[in-house]
Design goal:
This protein is mainly alpha-helical and 208 residues long. The chain has six helices and three strands.
Length: 208
């Protein structure tokens, strides 16, 4: 991310998903576009402060607050791109048993079923946030994590493999807040496992 970089919203063909309405997606895409817009605005404003020499956080409160806000907006943009990118129409539900991800789940959790239970229950945790599968680039191991306010909970240096948005805006038009588990079932019905496997293989391989 550079101050001179201008980001543009990406397009995702996700109409007619299973259990996630087109109305929800339209609202969600608009929200994502807001993160892109705000990332660009914050970069522009920070660049102005830098060019004006207003960098001392003890004297320039604006610089401090803009820097803090940038992490929220930028990660909000990127996490949504991973989330939309790991979904597709007519998903298979669970990955092929011979796939890289299925084997990684077995290796690191004992079985795919145990990995899925851990991931699903991470997504059911109280509060808003994200459930995320990350891969350690050094060992190839995968692990499940809870991300709170976009910038809080990401593991430094790890590669995102599978991202699930569990903020209420991701499902509130389709499910009541108490029905988040039904949304999680719908999410699994739409996972693009080819994309997940691609991310996994590009992040590294498990050590021998």
């Amino acid at each position: 991310m550079g101050l001179n970089t201008v980001y543009k919203p990406k397009s995702f063909d996700l109409s007619d998903l299973t259990g996630i309405s087109n109305e929800t997606l339209a609202m969600h895409f608009k929200l994502y576009e807001g993160y892109v817009t705000n990332t660009n605005l914050l970069n522009e404003r920070i660049a102005e402060l830098i060019s004006g020499g207003e960098l001392d956080p003890t004297k320039a409160a604006a610089f401090s607050e803009l820097k803090r806000r940038l992490g929220f907006e930028y990660n909000g943009m990127v996490l949504h791109e991973y989330y939309f990118g790991n979904m597709q129409k007519n998903g298979t539900g669970d990955p092929d048993k011979n796939s890289a991800f299925y084997k990684a789940a077995e290796e690191n959790f004992g079985s795919y079923a145990v990995w899925k239970a851990d991931f699903v229950n991470t997504g059911k945790m109280r509060g808003v946030g994200w459930a995320a599968v990350y891969q350690d680039p050094l060992t190839g191991a995968i692990s499940n994590h809870w991300i709170n306010m976009h910038e809080t909970g990401n593991v430094a240096g790890y590669k995102p493999i599978l991202i699930m948005d569990v903020w209420e805006h991701a499902f509130i038009k389709d499910y009541a807040p108490a029905d988040r588990p039904k949304y999680i079932e719908a999410f699994f019905a739409n996972i693009n496992w080819d994309e997940v496997n691609k991310r996994l293989s590009s992040a590294g391989s498990a050590s021998a």
